[in-house]
Structures are given as structure tokens and as C-alpha cells.
Specification:
The chain has a seven-stranded mixed beta sheet, covered by helices on one side. A seven-stranded antiparallel beta sheet has the order 3-4-5-6-2-7-8. It has six helices and 14 strands. Mean pLDDT is 88; it is low at 1-10 and 12-21. It is of the alpha+beta class. It is 24% helix and 28% strand.
Length: 292
């Protein structure tokens, strides 16, 4: 339905900054990341172990209670083979339309999953410093992605569900993104801060029945210590809205921090204003709305 520039460098730069009000704060970066690789049937424990030993740098042990534990610098990951499907109400709704244009039937029919739970091994050094805390989460995400991609490369792997983004990607797509980023010591924005675009609530439609206003939002920035971003009911095409928010989200994911009152854009002539808001998804969680 809409596209994205995978390697497109963000052109967003701050144009003006207004002092921050006392009522807004960004979330704390995550020290625990969870993901699941979906399978049609339960994979053999020995096969999961073999996939990890072949593709993961770290100490891999089997615990006394049947889990696999991966120890890497600064983190501990528990890998669990689980009978039964992912325990969320509607996993198909988490399938990003960019990556499931052939339909979500394989995800809906999955019968087992492998749970990957990565935690900080210790309190991150300099955790009180925003940049250091974010960097620690990025390191956790890199380890988590390496382990997840090792399992997602197994035969019959269907998809990779990321709890921090509530997004499911095809297994082969997640592997391609992760391996490319590991080779370049980066993180995949497509995986860790995906942008969703949906018709705005109560949107008018054109003569063909196509909605004329759209809403876009990020999912995943909160895990890295930044409020989610959203654009509400904009009279733009889905592609235009996706590109605008992807550019801003990339700017944030690369280390910038936005606050209510900021104005940003590709130039003084094309700027977007940031305002405090609440999440379009739950109506409670603090978020930042972008006015375009």
C-alpha cells in the first residue's frame, strides 16, 4: 500500500526549539527486550541449540529447567521453545502490511514459537545519563537481534514478532535486515521503530471510496527512551505520510530528542511542529504529535 526508503538518510534537521514544559518527559530506555520466532509446529530443542551455536557469539548453556541461556557482554538471554501459538488475541493484526502483501495466513496458522528474552546483566554504566542509557538499550537490541535472526534462519520459521513494537515481520525479511545491520554495526529502523499508516478515524472518502485523510504513528521508539511519534488525520497520501514520519523517526532513532514546541523540517520553508499528546492506540501513554 505504501513504500519506504530503506537506506534513505533522514533530511530532518531542527529549525527552532522552544523551552520544554515541566509536564512532559520521555520514557526510560528498556532494559528487557522480548521477541518470538513463529513456527508451524514445535521445533526440536536440539535444532534450536544448534542454530544458536552456529550463528551466535556468546556462551550458550542449557539450564537445569530446560531453557537455553546465552551470555553476552552486558546481557543475558533466555531462549525457550514453546508449544502452542503466540498468546496474543490477534497476531495477524500485528503483521505490517509492507511485508505481508501476500497475506497473513502463515502467521494465523502458526502452532508454536520460540521465546527470546534479553535482559541487562547489570545496571548500565551511566544509566542516569540519557545518551548512555539509550546506548545500552541499543547494545541489548543488537544482541537480541543476533539471537533472533539465528533462530529465524531455521527451516520452517515463519515470522519474527517484536514485543516492543507489537509488529510481526516475515522471518526472512527480519533476517535480511538484521544481518545487514550487524555487518554495519547499526540497528534496523524497520524492525525497531516501524511506522504504521492507517485511514484516519471518520475520514472522508473520494469518488472511488478511497480515504482522503490518514494517520501515521511509530511503534518502538519508547523502548529506546523516546516518546512515540504520530501524525493525526493528515490530508496526505499514505506514501507521503509514511515518508514524512519515517524521516522524523529516523532522525530520532539516530540519536536526536524531540520535545513539545520543537519545530523541525528539511528547510525553513517546510517545517513540522511538535506538540505533546497521548497515544492514538491507547489514549493514555504520552506521545508527541507532529503537525504538518
Amino acid at each position: 500500500m505504501f513504500g519506504w526508503g530503506r537506506k534513505k538518510k533522514s533530511q530532518m534537521t531542527p529549525v527552532m526549539t522552544t523551552p520544554v514544559g515541566p509536564d512532559f518527559s520521555h520514557p526510560a530506555p528498556a532494559t528487557h527486550l522480548v521477541g518470538e520466532v513463529l513456527f508451524p509446529t514445535t521445533p526440536a530443542f536440539d535444532q534450536v541449540y544448534a542454530a544458536l551455536t552456529e550463528r551466535v557469539d556468546g556462551e550458550i548453556t542449557q539450564t537445569h529447567d530446560g531453557y537455553l541461556q546465552v551470555n553476552a557482554p552486558g546481557s543475558t538471554t533466555i531462549v525457550t521453545v514453546c508449544d502452542g501459538p503466540l498468546p496474543i488475541p490477534d497476531v495477524a493484526a500485528t503483521c505490517h502490511p509492507l511485508f505481508w502483501q501476500r497475506g497473513t495466513a502463515p502467521v494465523e496458522a502458526h502452532g508454536a514459537h520460540v521465546l527470546i528474552s534479553t535482559r541487562s546483566a547489570a545496571e548500565p554504566t551511566g544509566a542516569s545519563d540519557e545518551a548512555a542509557a539509550r546506548a545500552h538499550t541499543q547494545a541489548l537490541a543488537s544482541v537480541h537481534g543476533m539471537i533472533g535472526s539465528a533462530i529465524a534462519q531455521m527451516d520452517d520459521a515463519i515470522a519474527y514478532f517484536m514485543a516492543s513494537t507489537m509488529t510481526t515481520m516475515p522471518a526472512d525479511v527480519s533476517v535480511a535486515f538484521t544481518l545487514d545491520c550487524l555487518a554495519n554495526n547499526t540497528l534496523s529502523g524497520e524492525m525497531w521503530r516501524p511506522v504504521w499508516v492507517r485511514p484516519a478515524a471518520h475520514s472522508p472518502v473520494d469518488a472511488t471510496g478511497f480515504p482522503t485523510t490518514w494517520t501515521a504513528y511509530t511503534s518502538g521508539l519508547a523502548a529506546f527512551g523516546h516518546a512515540e511519534l504520530q501524525i493525526e488525520s493528515a490530508p496526505r497520501t499514505p506514501n507521503e505520510l509514511f515518508d514524512i514520519l519515517t524521516g522524523i523517526a529516523s532522525y530520532v532513532f539516530d540519536g536526536a530528542t524531540l520535545y513539545p514546541g520543537d519545530t523541525m523540517g528539511s528547510s525553513h520553508a517546510v517545517s513540522h511542529t511538535v506538540t505533546a499528546s497521548v497515544s492514538l492506540l491507547d489514549g493514555v501513554t504520552p506521545a508527541l504529535s507532529i503537525t504538518i
